Amino acid sequence: MDRMESMAMQNYREFIGLYNRIAQNCFESCVIDMSHKSLSQEEELCVESCADKMIAVNHRLMSVFMEIGPPVDKQLGLSGVQAGM
């Protein structure tokens, strides 16, 4: 596996991990009644709202990271390769 494939695989693993954490968090917060195989309207709205909020927070964190990451890397003397980019 070359470096690009390795980086793509790492990105995929991180994405799947994030997806699983969002699903777990929203499930635990929103799904109350396990006696039906379908979500109630209230549970469905809660899950949608929860996922939207978690995704928005993730996007905000990534934008802040992209703002402060490169200057901090430069201060630490890290190049893109050393910093994991």
TrEMBL record:
It comes from the Eukaryota. Residues 6-66 form the Tim10-like domain. The keyword Transport applies. The keyword Coiled coil does not apply. GO terms for molecular function: metal ion binding. Keywords: Chaperone, Disulfide bond, Membrane, Metal-binding, Mitochondrion, Mitochondrion inner membrane, Protein transport, Translocation, Transport, Zinc. It is found in: Mitochondrion inner membrane. Its main location: mitochondrion. One of its GO terms (cellular component) is mitochondrial inner membrane. It is a peripheral membrane protein. Pfam families: zf-Tim10_DDP. Heterohexamer. Mitochondrial intermembrane chaperone that participates in the import and insertion of some multi-pass transmembrane proteins into the mitochondrial inner membrane. Also required for the transfer of beta-barrel precursors from the TOM complex to the sorting and assembly machinery (SAM complex) of the outer membrane. Acts as a chaperone-like protein that protects the hydrophobic precursors from aggregation and guide them through the mitochondrial intermembrane space. This is Mitochondrial import inner membrane translocase subunit. It comes from Hydra vulgaris (Hydra). The lineage of its organism: Eukaryota, Metazoa, Cnidaria, Hydrozoa, Hydroidolina.
